[in-house]
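Deliverable D2.4 — example input (structure tokens):
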């Protein structure tokens, strides 16, 4: 289903399946979810390639393997029929940024669901029958008892939050605030709870979203502009970790002021044009604060996210976050429903 122009219907297009090169893998997509970034691209809120196949939250089964005995990220042999997920990008492990520990910023990075269709690569996103995985893609086998609607977002939302927690450090006995309770925020609440946080607070501008946060590990919620989070933070001694998912400068500035001595603020939502933030440098120095940013994630984060979902998918009802499901042929309707904002995710299946 080809994305040709902002806010215009997807175009059903047939392509010939590729001849695989060494190290490449062909996957038959089985289930995808419509991510907020897909919606932003389609509705013109962020720049994206046209004549492309959107969708990066996707799982599937291997149908063909190129030469070179492609293996998963842990070095295990891949085989036809394996149920897998994969990193949202293919990277060069020998690139300068990869060697520095930032493969997601590798020179020549190739991002699934974001690339223009070319003569060599047509099946490059989740909203098609197949995905053509290039060499340099971190591939992970999936446990078979995880529902598709739970598994599909692992390689985006959950892996990103796993990366945020990696940057935040050990959460055991820490006070954690999650700002913004969309899909990222709910995953952050659940993962912070899972990894032993002393308390998990959640803050949002929408009361209905906060009710969901309590079901995903939050111990206390705050409605922006109504509940006194500043006073509560002072009483508790400040927050040890804040995971900020909204990306708005006003929220970032408020969260910075809630940090305890030695606190860490991790930004994951600031992926759109915005004004500069005003953070007090003296406060940063005297309180020994740290501000970190994360864009995408490293492969180890995806592995950790899979382990988290495998261990906790019966504890947290992630399947309920997919409000509606549509066959691939009804992708236009799926995007309309996603744009309505009624649900955290919309599912897309082959049918």
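Example output (designed residues):
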């Amino acid at each position: 289903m080809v994305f040709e122009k902002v806010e215009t219907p997807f175009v059903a297009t047939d392509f010939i399946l590729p001849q695989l090169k060494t190290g490449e893998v062909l996957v038959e997509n089985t289930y995808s979810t419509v991510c907020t970034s897909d919606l932003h691209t389609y509705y013109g809120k962020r720049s994206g390639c046209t004549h492309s196949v959107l969708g990066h939250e996707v799982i599937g089964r291997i149908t063909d393997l190129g030469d070179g005995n492609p293996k998963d990220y842990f070095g295990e042999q891949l085989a036809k029929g394996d149920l897998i997920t994969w990193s949202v990008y293919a990277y060069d492990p020998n690139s300068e940024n990869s060697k520095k520990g930032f493969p997601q910023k590798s020179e020549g990075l190739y991002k699934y669901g974001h690339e223009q269709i070319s003569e060599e690569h047509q099946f490059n996103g989740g909203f098609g029958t197949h995905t053509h995985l290039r060499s340099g893609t971190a591939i992970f086998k999936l446990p078979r008892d995880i529902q598709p609607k739970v598994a599909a977002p692992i390689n985006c939302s959950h892996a990103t939050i796993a990366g945020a927690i990696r940057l935040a450090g050990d959460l055991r006995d820490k006070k954690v605030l999650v700002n913004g309770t969309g899909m990222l925020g709910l995953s952050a609440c659940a993962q912070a709870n899972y990894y032993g946080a002393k308390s998990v607070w959640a803050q949002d501008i929408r009361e209905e979203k906060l009710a969901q946060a309590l079901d995903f590990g939050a111990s206390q919620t705050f409605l922006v502009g109504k509940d006194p989070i500043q006073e509560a933070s002072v009483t508790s001694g400040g927050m040890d970790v804040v995971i900020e998912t909204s990306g708005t400068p006003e929220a970032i500035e408020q969260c910075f002021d809630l940090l305890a001595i030695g606190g860490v603020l991790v930004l994951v939502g600031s992926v759109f044009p915005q004004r500069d933030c005003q953070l007090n440098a003296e406060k940063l120095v005297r309180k020994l604060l740290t501000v970190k940013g994360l864009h995408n994630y490293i492969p180890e984060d995806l592995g950790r996210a899979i382990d988290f979902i495998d261990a906790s998918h019966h504890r947290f009802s992630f399947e309920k976050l997919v409000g509606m499901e549509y066959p691939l042929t009804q992708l236009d309707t799926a995007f309309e429903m996603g744009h309505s904002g009624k649900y955290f995710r919309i599912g897309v299946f082959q049918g």
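Residues 47 and 126 are 18 Å apart (CA to CA).
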